[in-house]
Predict the structure of Alpha/beta fold hydrolase.
Amino acid sequence: MSRRPYEFEAICVSRTIRRLRCRPDEHGRYPVPVTSADTSRTDAPDAPLASTVVGDGPRRVAFVHGLMGRGRNFNGIAQALSDQFTVEMIDMPDHGQSPWTDGVDYRRIADRLADHLRSGLAADGPVHLVGHSMGGKAVMALALRHPELVDRLVVVDISPRTSPAATDEFVHLLGTMLEMDLASFRTRSDADAAMAQKVPDERIRGFLLQNLRRDHGHFAWQPNVEMLLRDLEVIGSFPEPMVEADPDRTYNGPVLWIGGADSDYILDSDVPRMKELFPRAVRVTIREAGHWVHADQPGPFVDAVRHFLTQD
């Protein structure tokens, strides 16, 4: 499966990225500067999430991306599965074409994804879910809060715990995005050149700049970058209990827990808690893959997901 140069889902962000000179407040939120944002969207509280559907196979699966991604980052994977599956690629709240919110809360994200699925892909019964990184935490939350919607669950390179790496990696990147004077750019090349001063890796810049859109003749960020930076520590967390009225709730369906051999987002010490919440979780590690497992090794990733989701 080939990837075009501008499909930058294959990003494994360096652990050595310089952090901004700021600290979170008592609520785990970072101060952020004012920047340009896409004002063309409709961010009503009940506005539907955006998604793209590929294929018309009898099995149904929804993919949920990670921080600063978008549903279409899974397009290559979806195309590979479309012979057997109807694949929905969902833009998370505050990402892509989905509405903005006032803050990150995995319980609220799970409920919103559940409402979205009930009105569409899961209208006739439970579906499979695949979530990567932040999206992996979202689908774990959904499975715990709305198990009736989930047939099988695939969690990709993330654990149900606080993930400091998620905060460490993105403070500098999101901060750089917010510091850019978008109104001064005439072309994407101008934006790329400006970002290169602080983000020298071309692949990482491409991943971030996929989120740049024109709004009334000027460039603007499509995701809710200011809020996402402010809530980075919340994004890296995993709320406990996930269901306040039932603190011992578990998801007892089949779970495939995929990790990259070169990633440290899943640790051996995470296994006991994962097994407590998801007793039927099976851990699989894909060689020569970092955090972006599905992009680093798309063939083995597709094989593992297809095998798991088609088991009787």
The CA atoms of residues 28 and 210 lie 27 Å apart. Residues 1-25, 27-40 have pLDDT under 50 and may be disordered. The longest strand covers residues 150-156. Residues 164-179 form the longest helix (16 residues).
